[in-house]
Records
---
Amino acid sequence: MSSWTDKRPMSPHMQVWKWHLTMAGSILHRMTGMANYVGAFVVVAWLFATAAGPDLYEPLAGLIDTIWGQLILFGFTLSISYHLLNGVRHLFLDAGNGFAPKFASLTAGVVFVLAVALAVAIWLLAGLVPGVDPLNLAGAASVGAAQ
Amino acid sequence: MSKPQQSIRTPLGQVRGLGSAKHGVGHFVSQRVSAIALVVLVPWFLITLINAVRGGYDGALAYLSEPLNAVLVLLAVGAALYHMRLGMQVVIEDYIAKNGTKIALLILNTFICITLFAAAAYAVLKIAIS
């Protein structure tokens, strides 16, 4: 270290750095970004299956309807909501705001909590949790089908 | 206090301008611009998509037949694929040191994102223009 003369900051060395909320948040941003990359395959597959017809759409919908499919879909929802909310935080950071250590840790923590809350709220409001349908979407759909 | 403002860039970097990737800040800016678009497009896509999926295959078909939906879905998917290609590019550049592997993965990343976009564009346009 004594021969290190470069004045520019070094990137965190994960083995020796103490974990901080900001660091965890930054790493999770990358991980969720990569998870969303995988999720994009599912979205495009859904679009393609819709264009191809029921022969492809129904098996895909059946696959997503299994317990594993639902778990992956909820994970994707979590990943999207975290990456979206933390992405907005990063836009403010990129503009040079919110770098005071305490405040940066606070916003990182707030994003963690909000991301989980948002994902859970989406599933509850969308009626994706069995037996929970606060907006009565199932009732509206059956009325629509009867017409 | 007549010292010039300290820059984080090396003197050589300031002379050469565009850095080792020869793109300057272009990649950084593109990533942020697509992010701003996605802040609007992704929530819209999530809400309308969940609503459409409730109606099964017919609901999905009706959803993509709407001209406005078709355009916005293509914008959302296009911006997302563009954004994730840029993001994965940085991840590959950061973690893959071996040059041959790095270049191969960067090309693969580009091919994957463009192929996904071609599939999405075909699907949406086929439904919307029929």
---
Amino acid sequence: MRERATAVFCPDVTTTARTPEEAVLFLRELGTGIRACVVLDRDGRVAASSCEDERLAGRMGDLALELLERAERSADGEVLGSIEVSTRRATVFAARRPRWSLAIVAERMALSSLVLFDLHRVLVDLEGATA
Amino acid sequence: MRDRRGAVARATGLAESVAAAVRRRQQSRLPRVLLYDSAGEPSVLRSATVDHDEVLFIAEGLVAVALEDQPDAGVADDLVEDEL
């Protein structure tokens, strides 16, 4: 009975985020404290962003890339899955896959596990769509 | 006499628990850098190290840009509350 109910309400675990624009839209609609996000392509260029201002979106993309590269250098040779940085004003989450990278700025008290789950889920869907 | 000691003990206990709550709150507000490996296992970058400070500096820049795009967002409320 439970399995049937689960199947009805959770047909699959994928998002509708098949394109970078859809990924941004999906994350903004989640209501889990996500305030801003940026998707980068494999060359580190901004593919989509929640910033309406193009200049700010570009700046956000540069900083997201810099953050991931700096974190990878700090990982002591380990493969970096993702990074979470709690600052005084907000929390930043970021992760990189072969084709796409994603950075999220969330409220300070946002639940890390939820944001990280959504971050990886969106990246998996983006990767799947471009595989 | 016994009652007065009891009241003092209760007041002391209350003050200690409030102080502990304030300490916990301040602790939870401290900047923190967590690196997750590919299996999702976290490790904390020790504070006051070059790695920690540089990662934090970049992240703060990212937050500043994000907030610049939405100056009336509720994120800044945390900062105001924190400084009170």
